[in-house]
């Protein structure tokens, strides 16, 4: 097997070495779409792509795959909106993702941690106050923001990430509401999307991109 890795993995201890036990690895974490097309056309021994939508800013589509020998796409994600699934089916390319690897993804809270961190920064104006202090300004009044314990948060999508986010918000004293038409929620108050928009100070989306959720 010859693998082209188009996402950074050197920060993950031992992963690149582990990947090399399966075959030759071409490590190109900064490769553009046009460069990937050229690489796949020029090297017909590459039969596997390892990717991640957090880094990749283009879709693996017909333009990329039509003149390649790729037979497997591994993605270090649960979402698949960075891969043209219809084209992969047409070209008989297998997709391997984390979507159904429940034992593994239950141990990965990083996305929820970042979501909570961004919310905290926005509500408490942490980046702005940090920049002001670096410039020598110590007046806290412009950066008071909002205490989390005084706010209501609406969690839209109560899967793995939504549950973790709800847990973090609850730990900070926020009133948590959940909107998920596909699940019965007993831990928190379950309300409709319209009610979330009406009641909540903060709305946190934790849904896969699909025809039903696009432009939500």
Automatic annotation (TrEMBL):
- Which intervals hold domain D-isomer specific 2-hydroxyacid dehydrogenase NAD-binding? 117-216
The molecular function GO annotations come to: D-lactate dehydrogenase (NAD+) activity; NAD binding
Q: Which Gene3D superfamilies match?
A: NAD(P)-binding Rossmann-like Domain
Q: What InterPro entries is this protein classified in? A: D-isomer_2_OHA_DH_cat_dom, D-isomer_DH_CS1, D-isomer_DH_NAD-bd, D-LDH-like, NAD(P)-bd_dom_sf
| Family that this chain belongs to | Belongs to the D-isomer specific 2-hydroxyacid dehydrogenase family.
PANTHER family cross-referenced by the UniProt entry:
2-HYDROXYACID DEHYDROGENASE HOMOLOG 1-RELATED
Q: What is this protein called?
A: D-isomer specific 2-hydroxyacid dehydrogenase NAD-binding domain-containing protein
Q: What is the lineage of its organism?
A: unclassified sequences, metagenomes, ecological metagenomes
């Amino acid at each position: 097997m010859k693998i082209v890795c188009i996402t950074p993995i050197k920060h993950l201890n031992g992963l690149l070495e582990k990947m090399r036990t399966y075959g030759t690895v071409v490590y190109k974490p900064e490769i553009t779409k046009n460069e990937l097309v050229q690489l796949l056309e020029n090297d017909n021994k590459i039969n596997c792509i390892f990717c991640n939508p957090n880094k990749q800013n283009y879709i693996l589509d017909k333009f990329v795959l039509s003149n390649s020998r790729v037979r497997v796409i591994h993605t270090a994600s649960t979402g698949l909106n960075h891969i043209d699934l219809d084209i992969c089916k047409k070209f008989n390319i297998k997709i391997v993702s984390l979507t159904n690897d429940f034992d593994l993804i239950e141990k990965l809270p990083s996305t929820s941690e970042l979501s909570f961190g961004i919310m905290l920064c926005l509500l408490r104006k942490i980046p702005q106050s940090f920049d002001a202090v670096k410039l020598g300004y110590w007046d806290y009044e412009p950066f008071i923001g909002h205490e989390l314990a005084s706010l209501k948060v609406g969690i839209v999508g109560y899967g793995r990430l939504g549950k973790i986010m709800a847990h973090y918000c609850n730990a900070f004293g926020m009133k948590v509401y959940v909107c998920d038409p596909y699940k019965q929620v007993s831990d928190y108050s379950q309300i409709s999307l319209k009610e979330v928009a009406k009641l909540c100070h903060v709305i946190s989306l934790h849904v896969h991109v699909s025809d039903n959720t696009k432009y939500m």
